[in-house]
Amino acid sequence: MKASYQRETKIPGQELQFIQEDNILLSFKRGTNDKWLYNDILNLEYLNEFKNHFSFTLGYKNWIQKAAGGLHYNRTDYVNDSFDIKNIQTSEVSLTLRWAPNEKFYQGKTYRIPISFKNPIFTLRYVQGIKGLLGGEYDYQNISLNIYKRFYFSQLGYTDVVLEGGKIFGKVPFPLLDIHRANQTYAYQLQSYNLMNFLEFVSDQYASINIDHSFNGFFFNKIPLFKKLKWREAVTLKVLYGSINSNNNPANNSQLLRFPVYFRRVPITYSLSEKPYIEGSVAIANIFKFFRVDLVKRFTYLDHPNISQLGIRVRFKFDF
User: Fold this and answer.
1) Distances from the Cα of 225 to the Cαs of 54, 216, 219, in angstroms?
2) In this structure, are residues 71 and 36 in contact, taking their beta carbons and an 8 Å threshold?
3) What DSSP line would sit under 179-243, residue for residue?
4) Residue 313 CB partners (closer than 8 Å, separation 6+)
5) DSSP state of 112
6) CA–CA gap between residue 206 and residue 13 (Å, rounded)
7) CA–CA separation, 149 vs 162, rounded Å?
8) Are 184 and 33 in contact (CB under 8 A)?
9) N or C terminus of the chain: which is more exposed, having fewer CB within 10 Å?
10) From start to end of 11-104, where are the E strands?
11) How would you classify the pairing of strands 205-214 and 202-203?
12) Do 17 and 190 form a contact (C-beta atoms < 8 A)?
């Protein structure tokens, strides 16, 4: 059983996926970074793990979020802050089911390190927002499924594949939609889209696939210098499909919060209804045993303002 209360500042759409060595890289960001949330979050969780590596988590979350900086919660005219709404509050219960057959891991003081990747890991999560419960303002349901599997290809290395999908039922403002995981830092994040801007894409239903293949020295070991350095080569591909139901599109409903725009009313936030978001990278890993550098390329939605089509990202990762 765990209870926590957080009062923090957060960037919408940023999900921190770092180990301790990565922290300094989060201090540097590209582009504009002026849209924030002030959060007050009460969390209650009960976790039960079984010997067959099945676990369930029951949770309650009460969340008050207030827009800050260049972000506004506004139903009428986004650039006119006199119409701003002070905050929105949600009250939700959740159930998370996780099954990781034959999982093995090293248990540290504060987190676990997986050491076995032969079997898939399934995570199913259901969230029920309840209007009227302890200040909650919205009724909705959010269901998501994540499947992770590592595939081994003998001398050609191994591939990590993550399939994910989700759907929201109910009418909710854009802060409660799925704000897709973006990354404007220079740290490469495995489960984020590293050339997507914060708040650039939202959906109420989506599906994605992330593929990360390590050749484990298949090519570099044939080059004497690289073989001695023990560098490793890798490639990634990330594809994200999504859409927004007309009931959750503020263009069709004046009671919903407006999507963010720049000062000249150029859109910041979009749906993915036209085509998928796609990015890929090539990487050199195991530099000095823990350093990985990715050259990342964005392939779609290249006409959006203030984006980067190509970038270098860095990650500290221990490969042995």
Assistant:
1) 46, 16, 12
2) yes
3) E--B--BSB--TTSBTTSPTTSBEESEEEEEEEEEE-TTTTGGGSHHHHHHT-EEEEEEEEEEEE
4) 183, 186, 187, 188, 194, 281, 293, 294, 296
5) E
6) 15
7) 7
8) yes
9) C
10) 35-49, 54-69, 88-99
11) unpaired
12) yes
pTM: 0.91
Q: How big is the CA angle at 250 (ends 244 and 254), to the nearest 5 degrees? A: 150
* Mean pLDDT of all residues belonging to the chain: 91
Three-class secondary structure of residue 73 per DSSP: coil
In tens, the pLDDT along 197-247 reads 999 999 999 999 999 999 999 999 999 988 899 999 999 999 999 999 999
Residues 6+ apart with CB under 8 A from 68: 9, 35, 36, 37, 38
The tokens describing 41, both together, are 């979050």
**Chain center to CA of 64:** 20
Domains and CATH numbers, the chain: 2-316 (2.40.160.50)
